[in-house]
# Entry
Amino acid sequence: MLQNAENYANLIKTKAKKFGFQNCGISRAGFLEEDAKPLERYLQNNFHGEMSYMANYFDKRLDPTLLVEGAKSVISLSYNYFPEEKIAGIEDLKISKYAYGQDYHEIIKEILKEMVAELQDEIGDFTCRVFTDSAPILERSWGRKSGIGWVGKNANLITKQTGSFYFLAEIICDLELKEDFATTDHCGSCRKCIDACPTEAIVGDRVIDGSKCISYATIELKNEIPDHFKGKMEDWIFGCDICQDVCPWNRFSKPHQQEKFKPNPLLKSMNKHEWTDLTQEVFSEIFKKSPVKRTKFAGLKRNIDFINQGIKNDTDLIL
# Structure
């Protein structure tokens, strides 16, 4: 039986590496005082758009002890999803890299459960819950506090050695663990992400106006896409990677090793014409286990039609 907080922390980090996580950091569970005012301002400015769930559970978002009774530590983990190759060519419609393969929520949560089971075999029983984008948790804040990375100007968590193409996950537990500390910011004077965003969604220091974001418009928004997105979608039909693709730190991204994140072969063969003629049957076959199923067929068709209409309008103007 391990005897102290430092040994527990070292064991957890060793297990994290064994189970395929890129990075693992530990923070003391407690109220995120420095995040309370920024979160309040974000909601007051309606930067969450129609994502009404963001306004729910305000206190729980700031305090993990309200999610796990007796919680003492937050274990933050990152899991790589950077692909071997981009699917879409320059002229093709595009989906975000994170959605190339199967749904990360299910895959990472299962990995976390297996990891916790091994830890409990060696440490003994402890109380915990595992999360990956599945509860009111400020994941980037905990990732920052634990030293995994810093919050970049595009509001993504960035790590020097690996960039930002990774999922975040947490184990909130009642173990007393040696904590890590935040790393320094390495964005400097760079503003590539700010300048590259076609909708000017990066509106402040590490602040995104979600209602202007292409990812929001193509995934979260359930109503019609507003006119202010016309001509600015840059062929993204699900999500958007622009602010990450231009980030200099992502030159260090390495391809993931997770078989379940590899794209369906049918997805790799899709071109603009086939996307335009997409049927419910083909959608169901390609995206059976994909995060893209979140939009449903009707939502993805809405996105495709919106982009095609913009292209048609541009062509009409030229003619």
